[in-house]
Amino acid sequence: MRLTPHEVRIIRETTREVFGPDASVRLFRSRTDDQARGGDIDLLVESEAPIADRFHKELELGAKLQMRLGDQPIDILVIDPDVQLQPIHQQARRTGIAL
Asked: Which residues contact 21 (CB under 8 A, 6 or more apart)?
C-alpha cells in the first residue's frame, strides 16, 4: 500500500469525523499496488445505516482530506443501504484494503 501510516491515520480519522464512528473506509485501485507509481487516492466509504446529505458529506470529506494531506488527487465513493451498487463499488469492496 502506497500510503504512509500518517496518511492512513488522517484518512481514517477524517472519515469518522465526517461520516461518524461506524463508517468504514477502504483504499482501492493503484495505491494498493506497491509496484505502481503515481495515481490518485481512491477511497470507498461505507455505512450500514443511511447517510443523510451523502453528497454534501462526500464533498466535505474530499475538502478536508485535501487540506490535511496536501494537494493530491482524491476520488471518493460513498455507499450506504440506499445506494444501488455498481460494478466499481463491488470491485472496491473486493480488492480494497481496509484502513
From this structure: none
For residue 72, the tally of other CB atoms under 10 A from its CB is 12
- Please list, in sequence order, all residues whose beta carbon lies within 8 angstroms of the beta carbon of residue 50, skipping any fewer than 6 positions away: 80, 81, 82
Tens digit of pLDDT for each residue in 56-85?
A: 999 999 999 999 998 889 999 999 999 999
According to DSSP, the residues that pair with 46 across neighbouring strands are 24, 79
pTM, to two decimals = 0.91
Residue 4 φ/ψ, nearest 5 degrees: -80, 160
CB 39 within 8 A of CB 57: no
- Residues 29, 31, 35, CA angle at the centre, nearest 5°? 105
